[in-house]
Specification:
351 residues; alpha/beta; Spore Coat Polysaccharide Biosynthesis Protein SpsA, Chain A; 2 domains; 8-stranded mixed β-sheet; 4-stranded mixed β-sheet; 13 helices
Length: 351
């Protein structure tokens, strides 16, 4: 496709059930001039073949096959093969509403923004579970004085912040000017939460960012496995590496003193996420307690999380953290599993 307005990068791995809906939703965009860059990341199922079949009848689709390297590496391959003025990202088990990219692009033209950000809807095939409009919707910011105070929120909550909802980090509800990406050599790192790390660099490079009320991305919350929810042997190490990368980024940008407590709060949240994965796993209670003991003695807690005064946490998080560091592992497991059951009950009741 010559001179596309937008290149949408779709990393593909083991998603043959969901890929047709994803590709159909991008093909159905009201914005003209959309290129789709499918990156088959060594998928063991028929996903690569499905993408090839779509490309046969849709000249605006290109398919690149590569050996498995993970989400970040697949997105990087997509960036390197994109030719649009802007670049967007769609995970291959999700989908987008028909006018999403037209509205984001229109906002980019009106504000001359390098990044345009929207919101998303947590969705199943049957219904919308939750609509999450971006908290800064309606604002356009220019220059470092306006962008940097927003950018530091990507590091995590400020000390004493009573909110628990994370500041939006995902790249898939946004579009990025490709010239900015290429000029600044922006790429994804092969680490957990690569979206946060990418946006920290992208927001630093942008001259203008438009936050819109567009809520067109559909984030699938059913039927698929997630690497962030699996109990892997390197679970704790992966989160440690993410927090370490946040610290390294802050040091490189000479802003560590301004964001140290935000990163410590993020470490605490990573501890809770790890604990939730452990509690929800199928291993024995004995092994769950051992995992939680390892978590408490890990760098996440000892080196990173302990920098944050517990009194600055919201009550529920403070209560759970005290239970954990005091070794009340059975109580922690009960609370985490009870919380998940409440979520399921609410889902069934509202459905």
């Amino acid at each position: 496709m010559s001179n596309p307005i937008l290149s949408v990068v779709v990393p593909i791995y083991n998603v043959e059930r969901f890929l047709p809906k994803c590709l159909d939703s991008i093909l159905g965009q009201t914005l003209e001039g959309v290129e789709i860059v499918c990156v088959d990341d060594g998928s063991p199922d028929a996903s690569g073949k499905i993408a090839e079949n779509y490309a046969l009848s849709n000249p605006n689709i290109k398919v690149i096959h590569r050996s498995n390297g993970g989400l970040g590496a697949a997105r990087n391959t997509g960036i390197e093969n994109a030719s649009g003025i802007f670049v967007g990202f769609v995970d291959s088990d999700d989908w987008v509403e028909p006018d999403m990219y037209e509205r984001l692009y229109q906002a980019a033209i009106e504000s001359n923004a390098d990044i345009v950000v929207g919101g998303h809807r947590d969705s199943s095939e049957q219904r919308v579970m939750c609509t999450k409009k971006h908290p800064l919707a309606g604002r356009t910011v220019h220059g470092r004085d306006q962008i940097d105070p927003i950018r530091i929120r990507l590091y995590g909550h400020a000390e004493g912040d009573s909110t628990t909802e994370s500041f939006p980090m995902a790249v898939w509800a946004s579009i990025y000017r490709r010239e900015m990406i290429i000029k600044n050599h922006l790429r994804f790192k092969s680490l957990l939460s690569e979206d946060t790390l990418f946006n920290l660099r992208a927001y630093r490079c942008a001259d203008a960012i438009a936050f819109t009320d567009v809520v067109g991305y559909r984030y699938r919350k059913e039927g698929q496995a997630s690497i962030t929810k699996s109990l892997r042997p390197d679970l704790i190490i992966r989160y440690e590496r993410f927090v370490e990368e946040l610290l390294n980024t802050a040091k490189e940008e000479h802003e560590l003193e301004f964001v140290r407590m935000r990163i410590a709060r993020t470490a605490i949240e990573c501890i809770r996420l790890c604990a939730g994965i452990i509690a929800g796993s199928s291993i024995s209670m004995k092994h769950k307690r051992q995992w939680l003991s390892n978590l408490v003695s890990s760098r996440l807690q000892v080196e990173y999380g302990s920098a944050l005064p517990l009194a600055s946490l919201p009550f529920q998080q403070r209560f759970f953290e005290k239970l954990l560091i005091n070794g009340n592992y059975r109580c922690c497991i009960f609370l985490l599993n009870f919380r998940e059951r409440v979520k399921v009950f609410r889902y069934l009741r509202e459905g």
